[in-house]
Design brief:
Elements: H1 3-19, H2 23-29, E1 34-41, E2 44-51, E3 54-61, E4 66-73, E5 79-80, E6 84-85, E7 88-93, E8 98-105
Antiparallel strand pairs: 1-2, 2-3, 3-7, 4-5, 4-6, 4-8
Keywords: Signal
Signal peptide: 1-27
Organism: Allokutzneria multivorans
Length: 106
């Protein structure tokens, strides 16, 4: 293990002790979650991405396909955005962590 990794682990352990958690619990619960998926319908392609607390999408292509963003948050009610038509983007910041981000088509 490098010095930098050891220093980061020691810092994480110190924070865990201050908040009353064990270092192993901190490592399991605070891992940044990220992902990327693509969805398409009727000529509109949406690229969905999420990292830690933010989830969003960017849609390109057909101008007449309706869609809305859905962000699944780990410790709060999921976010479902308003309806959009055609190309565009939308995003949402969860309080703690995003599980997944997707688009619903109509």
């Amino acid at each position: 293990m490098s010095k930098a990794v050891r220093a980061l682990f020691a810092a994480g352990a110190a924070v865990a002790i201050l908040v009353g958690a064990t270092p192993s619990a901190l490592a399991e619960n605070d891992v940044a979650r990220s992902g990327k998926t693509d969805q398409s319908m009727n000529g509109l392609t949406c690229v969905n991405e999420w990292f830690n607390t933010y989830g969003g999408t960017k849609c390109t292509g057909a101008a007449d396909q309706m869609w809305r963003l859905h962000v699944a948050c780990s410790t709060q009610t999921d976010y479902t955005g308003g309806w959009h038509t055609g190309p565009g983007s939308d995003g949402f910041e969860c309080k703690f962590q995003v599980q997944t981000t997707s688009v619903e088509f109509q």
